[in-house]
Amino acid sequence: MKDPIGTFERVRDNFIQYVKTAFRTQYPSLETEREALLRATSEEEPGVFYRDPWVEPLPRFATRQTLAELGSAEIPGMTPEDIGAFKGLAGCGLIGGFPLYSHQIDMLRRSMSGENTVVTAGTGSGKTEAFLLPIFARLAREAVTWSPPHERCEHQNDWWKQSSAGWRTARAEQQLSPRISQRAGETRTAAVRALILYPMNALVEDQMTRLRKALDSLNARRWLQQHCRGNRIYLGRYNGNTPVPGHEHRQDGRPNDRKIQDLITELQQSEEAARRVDEHIQQVDASGASEVEKEKAREARYFFPRLDGAEMRARWDMQEAPPDILITNNSMLSIMLMRTDDDGIFARTRAWLEASAKMSFIWFWTNFTSTAAQPAPKSPTSCACFCSDWSSAGTYAAPHFGFECLSRSGQCRKRRVPQRFFWRPVER
Fold first, then answer.
1. Residues 76, 112 contacting (CB under 8 angstroms)
2. HSE-up of residue 385 (Cα within 13 Å, Cβ side)
3. How far apart are alpha carbons 75 and 135 in whole angstroms?
4. pLDDT digit string (tens) for 385-419?
5. Domain ranges in the chain?
6. Pick from 48, 73, 178, 214: most CB atoms within 10 A?
């Protein structure tokens, strides 16, 4: 942040202006006295509204090349064509034209060399890009080789809409579910290529916004259509907010009408929210607002899923065809591993891993430490772990992975990690 004091003052003044506007009186002396109380922050007379900010100056992180300047030295193991595909995909919304931090490039280089790595740093240090860059590099390398999908099925992207009520009625008369699988017609293998774990749902939601911009923006859709033969790179949020819990069919095989209607309602509400955001963007564009205000309005598009895009709509769709990037939390993953409903996600991913030893599975875990729990470090720190090849890294006899630590302190310990997600014992 280039102007923390100025930012604080603008936020303070905006709140005070709101109070003065919403609760205005006709007495000038009272207005003056109230504003003086709202602005008071001295220790002798503590303010009732705010305290002066505390600013912790931190050194800037060292920067190196931009995304366009990266080459085989920073991205080992990839051909020039693969590197070009990676840059094209990452440039659609994940990374801009700014120089990358040194630890981001080191993470990319080490992980693409097959090392298991950990990056630790404070808030705003670019850890998200540090572990998403290796994911995008592997996904881009594989995505350009995928076979083209078949034509989409009728009502595949609108079966839940009001306009498809007749379709749903006809399916109900045949005692069939009206849902059409989101990825029906695909010819490539569906599997979880990257598993991103977070300790809380709030972080999952923030990550979804970043990934929607990176994989489901207009630029990303055009790039995937042009370079990946019409395929998409799918992402899926799987937690308690993902619609809908329960089974699509009853034990006798008939559709579970109540659960299906719950899903229809959820999808219609989600689509309505996206429609309102589009209307807001159009209104801002037509209002003569500044480019900064227009860009802020466009960013709101990524707060909501696009039901015809790269984000998986529902649990049932993910159970049938796992997303390429699965985002969840620790508690939900534990439940998924114990539940037969989700067996398809792990079985398909295991089969994908066994089919080719060259394909890597990536796993991340973000861990946050509290400043109140220990005297050091002085600022909140989180870490992201990158495991480059799950199909060959773990055995039942050797339960520890070796991680290369990328941190300012240089201190990192090996950590025990779960072993039975997707792979089988590997003979040494």
1. yes
2. 21
3. 12
4. 666 554 333 322 223 334 444 443 344 444 444 44
5. 1-55, 62-149+186-241+314-428, 159-175+243-308
6. 214
